[in-house]
């Protein structure tokens, strides 16, 4: 029997392609895990669910590291927003990871599906949403809103994870009033923090499959860099359209699971 950390070169190549696509999607609007996680589950049938999650986080943090840096250098997001967002996303993710074993996974899919339908419909029905940054709060109220987004979405990422980046983007656009491009920049930084929090839990437990994770991580990094550069070059309208397409895909994917189609 092959070791779970020793897939064939063919399987590794397919996982690498999935990671490349996931890195691009993640950098633009978030949610690359919905591409990467199923690929890992199919490609590594002998791995435990925790090993799959841990390896996915290792690959993901490679992409979020480079896309965060690319966005930071080109967008210069306000540290008064992204620092509290990042710190509390880290804490929320750590709490979510601890709580994960106590929450039935079957309860998540219907909740996520409803949330994605509402999010997608809201963005479609408000075509001017996220075109420009028009902040809804100032001072401490703005910081409190960023902290709230960090804790709630971070907790979700630690407990389950699929679509985390998209929920960050939507919360920053819909609640705080950022443009889609500004929101994507901050979402990447926050998502980097939630990935790090999960790895702080998983690495000491020895759950990461390093060879597979690092190969996928290198491809996720390339995808993340290209995705961030594309989003910056094409601006908020492109990110908005990409967001609608990706959320629609997630609705079909998770809806199929809930209805037992797949």
From TrEMBL:
Transmembrane spans: 51-70, 82-101, 107-125, 137-156, 162-181, 238-256
Superkingdom: Bacteria
Pfam families in UniProt: TauE
GO cellular component: plasma membrane
Topological relation to the membrane, as annotated: Multi-pass membrane protein
Location of this chain's protein in the cell: Cell membrane
Keywords: Cell membrane, Membrane, Transmembrane, Transmembrane helix, Transport
Chief place where the protein resides: membrane
PANTHER family: MEMBRANE TRANSPORTER PROTEIN YFCA-RELATED (PTHR30269:SF0), TRANSMEMBRANE PROTEIN YFCA (PTHR30269)
Family: Belongs to the 4-toluene sulfonate uptake permease (TSUP) (TC 2.A.102) family.
Protein's name in the database: Probable membrane transporter protein
The organism of origin for this protein: Nocardioides islandensis
Lineage of the species this protein comes from: Bacteria, Bacillati, Actinomycetota, Actinomycetes, Propionibacteriales
């Amino acid at each position: 029997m092959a070791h779970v950390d020793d897939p064939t070169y063919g399987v590794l190549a397919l996982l690498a392609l999935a990671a490349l696509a996931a890195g691009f999607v993640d950098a633009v609007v978030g949610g690359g895990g919905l591409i990467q996680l199923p690929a890992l589950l199919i490609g590594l049938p002998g791995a435990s669910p925790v090993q799959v999650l841990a390896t996915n986080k290792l690959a993901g943090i490679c992409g979020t590291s480079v896309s965060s840096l690319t966005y930071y250098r080109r967008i210069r997001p306000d540290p008064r927003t992204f620092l509290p967002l990042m710190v509390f996303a880290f804490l929320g993710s750590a709490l979510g990871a601890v709580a994960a074993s106590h929450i039935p996974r079957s309860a998540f899919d219907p909740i996520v599906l409803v949330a994605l339908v509402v999010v997608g419909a809201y963005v479609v029905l408000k075509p001017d949403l996220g075109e420009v940054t028009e902040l809804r709060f100032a001072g401490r109220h703005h910081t409190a809103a960023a902290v709230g987004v960090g804790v709630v979405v971070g907790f979700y990422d630690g407990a389950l994870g699929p679509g985390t980046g998209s929920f960050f983007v939507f919360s920053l656009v819909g609640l705080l009033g950022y443009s889609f491009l500004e929101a994507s920049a901050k979402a990447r930084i926050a998502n980097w923090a939630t990935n790090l929090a999960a790895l702080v839990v998983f690495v000491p437990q020895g759950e990461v499959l390093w060879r597979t994770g690092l190969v996928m991580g290198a491809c996720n990094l390339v995808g993340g860099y290209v995705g961030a550069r594309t989003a910056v070059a094409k601006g908020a309208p492109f990110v908005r359209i990409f967001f609608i397409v990706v959320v629609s895909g997630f609705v079909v994917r998770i809806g199929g699971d809930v209805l037992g189609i797949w």
